[in-house]
Amino acid sequence: MTQRLQRLLPFLTLILLFVGLSIASPDHFLSKTNLSSVVRQTAVINLMALGMTLVIISGGIDLSVGAILAMGGLLGTMAMEKGYPIGLGIVIGILTGSACGLVNGLLTTRLKINPFIVTLGTLGIIRGATLIISNGLPVHQIPPAFSYLGEGNLLGVPFVLWVLIACAAAVHVLLEHTRLGRYAFSIGSNEHAAVYAGIPVAFHTTAVYAIGGMLTGLAGMIEASRLMTGQPTAGQGYELQAIAAVVIGGGSLRGGEGSVVGTLIGAFIMGLLANGSDLLGISPYLQQAIIGAVIILAVWFDELRKRRLGA
């Protein structure tokens, strides 16, 4: 019964937060414009968090996702600025993210370095490379039609929500119904046991990082579409929010645990906290402190649960 309650806790928290904000600011929070804005703003973190879910389940972590988002968005918009089609620009952004994730995976598996250290290093490398490529200047000459990706509607629903649903469904199928998903859980639960079981740990770990990078590249293009600029400094601090979304949703930083639904709930909790704070006039600096505190609490609850199970 306790485990079931713990699994439902993020969902209950989301409901209570939604009801609380509806009561505190009914005229603004429940407006169609505001709810649509929450979906659009949260979609970027949601996509990054889906990729982070795969990485964390496999026992890793990726601190470079904010920098990957910036590089993907920059290179994609630079391609459009040079006259390439919008679709090709989006593909370039996604492939850039995949390449960065692939490098993270290869460095982690080939050099046998802790992923925390690897991605902390690549965070600086990718961010620096993005600033060098752009000379620190944003890209502004973007086709107006590109704004549809981040701001358009399809059947009365924000287009990014359809994109998010498709990606979430794909990641769920990958985790629950494919060999890669099963191996990711196995590697995260006990990497040494996975090796002895004959699982190609290096290959599947690298694949997980590449997929995480791909989703982050897509998030970078959505961010660029919303802002209608390729911003080399975009995504700063986003890695913290992506990790928080996974942890709040029930993922374990020890690996071997996590789910798509939990991550989506966690990301929407983060989105509602940010939106509610803005509506209620709470300082954005305090928002950062709240995010940090929520991560600590979520990890603490996870540790308590594991101790009880161990006992």
Largest sheet: 2 strands, antiparallel
CATH topology: ABC transporter involved in vitamin B12 uptake, BtuC
| Count of individual beta strands | 2
Number of domains: 1
Helix content: over 70%
| Cross-sheet strand order for the largest sheet | 1-2
**How many helices?**
14
Strand content: under 5%
Could you write a compact summary of the structure shown?
This protein is an all-alpha fold. Helix content is 77%, strand content 1%. The protein is built from 14 helices and 2 strands, in the order αααααααββααααααα.
List the helices and strands and how they pair.
Blueprint: H1 2-24, H2 26-29, H3 32-57, H4 65-81, H5 86-110, H6 115-134, H7 148-151, E1 153-154, E2 157-158, H8 159-177, H9 179-189, H10 191-196, H11 201-227, H12 238-248, H13 260-279, H14 284-310
Antiparallel strand pairs: 1-2
